[in-house]
Write a structure and sequence with these properties.
Largest sheet: 7 strands, mixed
Strand content: 15-25%
Helix content: 25-40%
Number of helices: 10
Number of domains: 2
Order of helices and strands: HEHEHEHEEHEHHEEEHHH
CATH topology of the largest domain: Rossmann fold
Number of strands: 9
Distance between the termini: 64 Å
CATH class of the largest domain: Alpha Beta
CATH superfamily of the largest domain: Vaccinia Virus protein VP39
Structural class: alpha/beta
CATH architecture of the largest domain: 3-Layer(aba) Sandwich
Length: about 270
C-alpha cells in the first residue's frame, strides 16, 4: 500500500490552519534519511512528523526519535503506526513553546518538514538557542532555502543568510516537487542541510546577527545611518576593512562578526 493510499484510509484530514502538507513520497523520505548521517542510535529531534512516513524510516534505521507534534489527532495516528518501535517519544506540543533545555546529552540531529507558517522563525530560534543540535535536515519552501544559503550581494541575501552562515554551513541538497505532498502545496520545496561547528564565540556571533537584523530592516540606508545607535566607532571601521557607506547586503557574515567584535572590545 502506498503512503497516499494509507493516508486516504486513515481518518486524518490535513489542517490548513496548521499549514499541514504530508509527505507521501517514500523515495524522497529515503533520500532525506540518508542525509541524517548519524551514528547508530543517535538522537533525532523531529518537528512536525505529520503522518509518520519519515519517522518510521528513521526508526527502522535505529535512530532514537523525539517527535514534537502540535496536532493531537496526528499524535493518536502516530501512536498506532509506530507501536512496534520502543525508541520513539511523541510529544504533543507547539514547537515554538517547547522547552529545548530538555534535550539531554551532547548532540542531537534535527529533521523537520518545517511548517510554512513558522518555519523561518523556528529555524532561527533553534540555531540561536539550541546549540546541542549539531546537524539540521529541513524541508522548506525553495524561496526560503535560497535565502538560507544566499551569498553577499544577491537579492536573496538577508539576515537569515547571515545567521545561517555565522552558526552553520548550509547547503541545498535537492528540490521536492509539489506532487510529493498531500495536499499539493503551491510552491516547490527544498531540502537543506546545515552543519553546526563547535563555536567558542557564540556570544559575539549572536551580536553580529543582531547587527545584521537592524541593518537589513533599513537596507536602503548605509550602515553608518542604519547602525548609528549601536555603539560602533565608524572612524575605525576602515581598520577592519569595512566601508561605512556600505549597505546591509554588501557586508559578509564575517564582516558583521568583525563589527560585533569591535563593539565588544571597545566596551
Amino acid at each position: 500500500m502506498s503512503e497516499a493510499e494509507w493516508l486516504a484510509k486513515s481518518s486524518i484530514k490535513p489542517k490548513k490552519r496548521l499549514s499541514q502538507n504530508f509527505l507521501i513520497d517514500q523515495n524522497i523520505a529515503k533520500k532525506i534519511t540518508r542525509l541524517i548521517q548519524g551514528q547508530l542510535a543517535d538522537k533525532v529531534l523531529e518537528i512536525g512528523p505529520g503522518s509518520g512516513v519519515l519517522t518510521e524510516l528513521m526508526l527502522r534505521e535505529q535512530y532514537r526519535v523525539r517527535a514534537i507534534e502540535i496536532d493531537q489527532d496526528l499524535i493518536d495516528l502516530l501512536q498506532g503506526r509506530l507501536i512496534d518501535y520502543p525508541q520513539i517519544e511523541l510529544i504533543n506540543q507547539d514547537a515554538m513553546k517547547y522547552n529545548y533545555d530538555e534535550l539531554e546529552g551532547p548532540l542531537w540531529i534535527l529533521v523537520s518538514n518545517l511548517p510554512y507558517n513558522i518555519g523561518t522563525r523556528l529555524l532561527v530560534k533553534l540555531i540561536m538557542d539550541v546549540p546541542v543540535i549539531h546537524r539540521y535536515v529541513v524541508m522548506v519552501q525553495k524561496e526560503v532555502a535560497k535565502r538560507i544559503t544566499a551569498v553577499t550581494g544577491t537579492k536573496e541575501y538577508g539576515a537569515l543568510s547571515v545567521v545561517s552562515n555565522l552558526f552553520t554551513k548550509p547547503k541545498i541538497q535537492f528540490d521536492i516537487h509539489q506532487n510529493s505532498f498531500i495536499p499539493r502545496p503551491e510552491v516547490v520545496s527544498s531540502v537543506v542541510t546545515l552543519q553546526r561547528e563547535y563555536l567558542t564565540d557564540s556570544k559575539e556571533r549572536t551580536a553580529a546577527f543582531n547587527l545584521a537584523k537592524i541593518a537589513f530592516q533599513q537596507r536602503r540606508k548605509t550602515i553608518k545611518k542604519s547602525l548609528a545607535g549601536e555603539n560602533i566607532n565608524f572612524d575605525k571601521l576602515s581598520d577592519i576593512g569595512i566601508n561605512e557607506k556600505s549597505r546591509a547586503e554588501e557586508l559578509t557574515p564575517d564582516q558583521y562578526l568583525l563589527m560585533a567584535n569591535m563593539v565588544s572590545n571597545e566596551n
